[in-house]
Protein: Bet v I/Major latex protein domain-containing protein
Amino acid sequence: MFTLASSSMACKTELDVEAKSSADKMWEAIRMSTQLFPKIFPEEYESIEIVEGDGKSAGTIRLLKYAPEVKILTFAKERIDLVDDEKKHVSSCKSKLNLDIQSH
Structure:
């Protein structure tokens, strides 16, 4: 099992996922999400770009560009705050969201 956590201001979201794949394989996919997610989830992500850092470590800032199918959100900046490989835990904060709420 692995955990994804996202916090923003007073909001915190945690997600525990059970998968048919091993926890190690799932964790590797999460760690490679910058390159992997746009390929395996093209209906969600147009691209994920590293703005600062290595894309995997705490302090990394990524620009997530969402696919046109994601009607209300076009992009978000995400900062990776914490990575714990032993516990398979990553915590990040999304900021600077670009929401398109008028056309929907």
Observations:
- Confidence is low (pLDDT under 50) at residues 1-11.
- DSSP finds two helices and six strands in the chain.
- The CA atoms of residues 56 and 84 lie 11 Å apart.
